[in-house]
User: What shape does this take?
Amino acid sequence: MDTEEFRRLWDELDPIGRLPGGGYLRFSWSEADLACRAWFQEQARARDLTCESDRNGNLYAWWGEPGSGEAVLTGSHFDSVPHGGAYDGPLGIVSAFLAIDALREAGDRPRRPIAIAAFTEEEGGRFGIPCLGSRLMTGAIDPDRARALTDAGGTTLAEAMRETGADPEQLGPDPERLASIGAFVELHVEQGRRLDGEDAPVGVANAIWPHGRWRLDFTGAADHAGTTRLPDRRDPMLTFAFAVLAARKEARLAGGLATIGRVEAEPNATNAIAATVTAWLDARAPDEAVLSAILTGFESKVTERAGRDGTGFAIRPESETPVVEFDAGLRDRIAALLSTFTARKHRRGGGAPILPTGAGHDAGVLAAHVPTAMLFVRNPTGVSHAPREAASDEDCAAGVDALAAVLRDLAC
Ligand code: HGY
Ligand code: MN
Ligand code: MN
Assistant: This one.
């Protein structure tokens, strides 16, 4: 496909939720999310695709009869982390509409229905649990727990949905819908620089690292910053500061990743010792043993430090995602297809590299239920979850070509 065609559709969606200082704020069920959903419905209408929402707020646009066979699902998510990049999520949805356009222009017709999905709250940016829409659909999270999740302002998911006219009572597993899906292929911007290093516009995923999020509660005693002697303090900020360094050290020693990127302090006053600090640990590793080593080391070091600081420390999981190995047959079929495809269309050999990722995706959740694959599009900065995330129009167009070839192979 030509790059202008990609740019035309991309430019329609691109301004939604864009912040004046750069980056995006597209929390689920926000104004920006509703505008993205309206855009999705409009795209479906313009193409005569049947558009529907499932009981969990995930959207679908069907080419072919909904639920009438082993559908091939593609798509991704609209929501972003706060100040996130433009491509993480939306690229998979825009590319899906363009891939269907390309198939139609080439005269292809699906023998199995093709559906484009927009999954809800993939980032967990508003309600804390990543891949919430796909977890609900597959029964990986209890709907009562999901309804009660709160955002930073104390609004529950149930309230946020009701405010937009959606019905939170419907939330829950959707085995019938799951059974109607024969395969899922999610296209996503790469969140690293491996494809850039290999000079490849498109890659194929083989695995997602095991990962999770843990809530950390540090408790102490609020007091005056100007009058409380240092030996008399029980300052949870000290234990928190130690925890940030301990996370980094344990990850380095074990060979994984650990990040504390979110923190809240009470009362959050310059001239008062904090009473409580709450933070969230994100940890990921190439395998479960390394992840577990990071957590065990982290918990014991921070507990020991809290004893010395006279503070309290508690850690509890909010979401845990086991390792995902994508369907080997589907992965190899796609890699073989793209080896000729990239050579022909982009005059380069080497095909589509196969690579793992430390980032979570709805594809990782669906992979436990249906054969699933992921395509990655080169990101020259390698940056993601930040405004510098990038992809050239040329590579995005190559991604659409690759997705169209995969959908043709699987469904036409
Ligand atoms: O990997 C993540 O943080 C999210 O699930 N995309
Ligand atoms: Mn993301
Ligand atoms: Mn994503």
Observations:
- The mean pLDDT is 96.
- Residues 122-123, 130-131, 359-360 surround (2S)-amino(hydroxy)ethanoic acid (ligand 1) (CB under 6 Å).
- The chain has two domains: 3-209+323-411, 212-321.
- The chain is about 40% helix and 20% strand.
